[in-house]
Each structure stands twice: as C-alpha cells, then as structure tokens.
C-alpha cells in the first residue's frame, strides 16, 4: 500500500548554532487557502546567525511504505473509541481510578480499563505491599496480553501525624451520638468504638470542646474528655470511617495548628517508594507537600529513572508556595478533601480553578481529585450537583479526573467511571463549540533557543490545526516534551504521540488529549517515520481518504549532533 501526501506544508527549523535569530512563520499556502500562523516575535541573542525556515507545498508524489515488523502500539480502548466516534469525538480528559478491595480482581480491572481508566492509583495508606504487588502484576498483564495502556501510580501516606486506624479491614459506620476512644496505644485486633492514632503526640494542644474531623468531613466528633494522651469523643456527624483515615482538629471554626517536626517523607514512605520503583510504577504522588524541597529530594533520588513525581496540594502551606511546588514537580493532584479541611468550603472552586490555570501555564498535568462522585460510594446514581462539579473541572481543562472511594470500596465503581466518561465527553464538545481555550495567557517556558523554538512551533501548530480543521495531530517525540506543549494549548483534534520509549508513553497517558503509541522511530529519517505510522493506522481502517493530519516532530538526527529537527507538516491521505 502507499500513502500520498496531497497537500503538505513543511516548516523546518535547522539550528546550526546558538546565535540570535528572527523566527516566524508567515502566511502559508494550504489546499489553495492562505492561513495565518503566528509563531511569536524575535529571539534575542548575540551575533547575526539565524534559523533557516523553509516552506514548501508538495502535491502528489506516492511513497511506497515497507510493511511494519510489528503492529502499531495503539491501545485497544483508543482504537475502539476512534472507530466509533471518529477523531474529534475522542475523549481528551484522562481518568484515574483508585484500586481497592472492590475492584482488584482481574475481571474488575479489565472492566475499568475497558471503561476508559488511563491510570490506576494505589493508595499506600491501605493494604499490604504484597497486595499492591499483585494488583500491579495484574495491570501489567492486561497491558501486555490484552493491548491496554494503563499507567500505575502509587500515593504515599505522608506524615503519620495525620493518620488514624480502627483496625478493621473495611469501613466502619460512626453513628451520631456514639462515643469513641482515640488513643496512641498499640491495640490487639479491632476493639469496638476504639481508634488508634499512629503518632503518639496526636493530641498535643487539643482541648475539650475541639472538633475532630475525619477525611475532610466523612464524619465529625467532639472532644468530651482528655485522659493523658487519649481523647474520648462523641460523634456529632455520622458517616463512614475508612481504614487509615486522615483527620484534623478545629476550634471555634479555625483549624488547630499542629506542631510537628515529622518530615514530609517518612521512613514508611521511602520504603513504599523503593517498592514502587522496583515494581516499575509510572507515577509517585507525594502527600502533604508543603514546599518544593521533598519534591526535589525525590526527583534527585529518581534521577535517570522514568518515574514521574506528582505533588498533592492539600494544605494551606502548599497553596502559599504553589508555583514553586508546580515548577519542581512533574504534575499536581488537587486533593480537595484534605484541602477543604484547611480552607473555607466556598474558596474550593476558585482555588481549584487557579491551581488548574497555573499548572497549564507551567505545562504540568493536573488531576482534580476527591469527592467527585462521593454519593456513589453508597448509591448507584450521582447527585446532579456532582455531575455539575465534574463538568466544571472539565470546563477548566483539567488534565485528569480521579475516583477515590467510588472505585476503591464502592459497589458501583464501573458505573461511576462511565459517568465521568460521559460527562467529560459532553463538556469537551460544548467547550470546543464555545472556543474557550483562547483565554489561556501564554507564559513563555523555554530558556534555551531550541526550547523556545519548540514552544513557538507547538503554539503555532495548534493554531493552524484549529484553523484548518485537521482531523488529528501526529507528534514524534523521544521524551514527550512537544506532545506536552501541544496538549498545553488544548487543540480541537486529538494528539497521537509516537515514541520509542515506553516510560515516555506511560507518562503521556496523563496528558490531556494525548494518545501515546509505542513504535520504533528513526532519528535520521523523519519521512520514513511519518509514512510508516500513517500507513499502519490506515491499514487498520482508522484513516480514510480525505483525512488531514498535522505532523510535528522534535526528534534530533544522531548524525548531526548540533542540529535539532523540528517541523510542522500538513498531510492529506488519498
């Protein structure tokens, strides 16, 4: 079979030195039309060197493509969605599911993967390492044997000062008016109405009359007696008490400050991290990050590994140092449950939108988490307010939405996932019609000349793709940088990211609108990469004559070490 390029725009920047350039793409001819594409202003520097930008229109010209040795690395869910809905109908918001006792069997994991789960989250607060190892093994088997592409994330427990446990393997219902003992003493088994704190000084500074809040409001208690370090409390708001629950104290409507010198990363956290690395997890989410230091510490530890580090924003301190935390991390999780304990409820919507905006400006993926469909922990249908909350997160262009207890312990996890999928797809369509992505203030990220050029090319490529109405964007990338920059601009068409690095593929699984594919790529023959991948997709019946794709690349030829190859092409399949 052959692939023809009917109409093609080619803009290549050949960087032959680091001297100053004037870089801009002017009006280019495409399919008989003149299309404006602005690539930014001048690039300042020393000397009079410049980047050579060439534009050419190629019409016709059949290229024979060799038969691929291996099948294209497109996961089965994306392939089925593309067949059913077409390019522009593909969901772009990624979905994260917390795995727990309600969904840890091979059958349940497969159903979640078929339902659109992009990332499986394992909360290290719960279950044993053997249990987590078994779940990771099952997910890897699904990926390898059944063609899924599900990444794995572990979530560290964080400082022990925040954790309580009732000793039972599942949740316990706390009824209003019941009296409970909170103690740091080591307990045998799970005595009724008794809760063990994991930190001996958990009650320091706490007074009779203070309020104890479980998991951001799942249940509430009032301190009625203090005996040594133990607290006797009466339940004032009934609710579910999960194993390894987090808690906080309030006094007169204000959070009680906790004086603790415990590090963000405990000994248990480091042991869990070593476990995750040995099991090849793709993401590690750090709990209770108050500044950028623990993020940098972990990233230094993971140097030369493909595991990405996410920081959970769940405290007032993390909000005060938000930009430095975002800059240091590979992504952010907005843990609204714990965050809602530390700031007034009415501030949560604006804080969520601000975190999402900052992450997008700084080109870091952001997950909106906690209580998205909380009622579905017990009931088969969500409230209309919960669906509106999900839709608002999608409208804000969050990269991903996350289920917690809904999937981990609830009996309706698969239905909750389908609701996320349907709500996000519908809101994406509405947002595209409203053309909202133009409101993003483009913050310049690149420092070096090649990085600045790559950033401008991606900004320009998305504008061209939207103006031309292309069906898809193909990006060929080694480390995922240009795929991420394209995603940052939230284009109308989906982004197919071809990479030969599996770590890059699994990391891109969290990026908005990116469908990552693992393929063998040539560093020296870009046209062969394009022709081969287009032919692979067309041979599966996913590309048809008349489809238009935009092609972007950041691959660097190995035989010319000082030259970066960056290009934009528009190709029509015939």
UniProtKB/TrEMBL annotation:
Domain (Pyruvate kinase C-terminal): residue spans on this chain: 455-555
Family matches, as InterPro entries: Pyr_Knase, Pyrv/PenolPyrv_kinase-like_dom, Pyrv_kinase-like_dom_sf, Pyrv_Knase-like_insert_dom_sf, Pyrv_Knase_brl, Pyrv_Knase_C, Pyrv_Knase_C_sf, Pyrv_Knase_insert_dom_sf
Catalytic activity: pyruvate + ATP = phosphoenolpyruvate + ADP + H(+)
Enzyme class, UniProt record, top EC level: transferase
Pathway note: Carbohydrate degradation; glycolysis; pyruvate from D-glyceraldehyde 3-phosphate: step 5/5
Known EC number: 2.7.1.40
Cofactor(s) the protein requires to work: K(+)
GO molecular function, one term: kinase activity
Stored PANTHER family: PYRUVATE KINASE (PTHR11817)
Protein name as it appears in the record: Pyruvate kinase
Organism field: Gossypium hirsutum (Upland cotton)
């Amino acid at each position: 079979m052959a692939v023809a390029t009917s109409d093609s725009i080619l803009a290549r920047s050949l960087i032959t030195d680091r001297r100053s350039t004037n870089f801009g793409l002017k009006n280019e001819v495409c399919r008989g039309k003149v299309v404006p594409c602005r690539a930014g202003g001048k690039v300042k520097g020393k000397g009079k060197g410049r980047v050579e930008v060439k534009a050419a229109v190629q019409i016709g010209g059949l290229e024979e493509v060799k038969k691929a040795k291996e099948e294209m690395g497109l996961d089965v869910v994306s392939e089925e969605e593309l067949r059913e809905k077409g390019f522009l109908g593909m969901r772009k918001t990624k979905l994260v599911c917390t795995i727990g006792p309600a969904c840890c069997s091979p059958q349940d994991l497969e159903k979640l993967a078929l339902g659109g789960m992009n990332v499986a989250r394992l909360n290290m607060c719960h279950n044993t390492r053997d249990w987590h190892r078994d779940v990771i093994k099952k997910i890897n088997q699904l990926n390898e044997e059944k063609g899924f592409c599900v990444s794995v994330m572990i979530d560290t427990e964080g400082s022990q000062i925040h954790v309580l446990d009732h000793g039972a393997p599942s949740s316990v219902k706390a009824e209003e008016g019941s009296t409970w003992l909170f103690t740091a003493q080591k307990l045998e088994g799970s005595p009724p109405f008794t809760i063990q704190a994991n930190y001996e000084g958990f009650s320091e500074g706490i007074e009779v009359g203070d309020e104890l809040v479980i998991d951001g409001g799942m249940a509430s208690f009032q301190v009625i007696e203090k005996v040594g370090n133990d607290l006797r409390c009466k339940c004032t708001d009934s609710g579910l008490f999960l194993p390894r629950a987090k808690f906080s104290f309030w006094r007169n409507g204000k959070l009680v400050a906790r004086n603790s010198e415990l590090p963000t990363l405990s000994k248990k956290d480091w042991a869990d991290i070593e476990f995750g690395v040995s099991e090849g997890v793709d993401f590690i989410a750090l709990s209770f990050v108050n500044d950028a230091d623990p993020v940098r510490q972990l990233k230094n530890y993971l140097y030369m590994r493909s595991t990405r580090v996410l920081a959970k924003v769940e405290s007032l301190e993390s909000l005060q140092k938000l930009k430095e935390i975002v800059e240091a991390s590979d992504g952010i999780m907005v843990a609204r449950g714990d965050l809602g304990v530390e700031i007034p409820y009415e501030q949560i919507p604006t804080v969520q939108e601000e975190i999402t905006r900052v992450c997008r400006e700084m080109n870091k993926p952001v997950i909106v988490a906690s209580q998205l469909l909380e009622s579905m922990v017990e009931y088969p249908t969500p409230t209309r307010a919960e669906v509106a909350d999900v839709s608002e997160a999608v409208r804000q262009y969050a990269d991903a939405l996350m289920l917690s207890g809904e999937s981990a312990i609830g009996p309706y996890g698969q239905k909750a996932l389908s609701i996320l999928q349907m709500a996000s797809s519908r809101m994406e369509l509405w947002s595209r019609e409203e053309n909202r992505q133009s409101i993003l203030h483009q913050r310049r990220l690149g420092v070096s000349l090649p990085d600045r050029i790559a950033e401008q090319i991606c900004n320009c490529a998305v504008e061209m793709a939207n103006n031309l109405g292309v069906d898809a964007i193909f990006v060929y990338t080694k480390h995922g940088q240009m795929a991420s920059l394209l995603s940052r601009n939230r284009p109308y068409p989906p982004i197919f990211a071809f990479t030969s690095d599996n770590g890059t593929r699994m990391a891109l699984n969290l990026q908005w609108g990116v469908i990552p594919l693992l393929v063998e790529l040539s560093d020296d023959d870009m046209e062969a990469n394009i022709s081969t991948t287009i032919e692979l997709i067309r041979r599966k019946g996913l590309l048809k004559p008349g489809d238009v794709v935009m092609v972007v690349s950041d691959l660097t030829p190995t035989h010319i070490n000082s030259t970066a190859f960056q290009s934009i092409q528009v190709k029509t399949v015939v």
